[in-house]
Sequence to fold (72 residues):
Amino acid sequence: MTAERWFPTEGDLHLRISMAGMVFDYTAAAVAVRNLIHDWRRRHWCTIELIREAVEDGLLPRLPCERLFLGP
Fold:
């Protein structure tokens, strides 16, 4: 299944980023995640996973600098 078939266009997503053996779980807006993945495809600087389970409010911290990925 491709990301385009199940990737939501709005709402918050659970995003898991792995860097240098550390794992970070965040909540981020779907638009920010889509733009982050677009940037990541140009240069793979970490491992990214999208968790398909629903995100509960306040359970995970917001993605640092999320607003930088909200624009084009």
Remarks:
- The beta strands are 12-19, 22-29, 47-51.
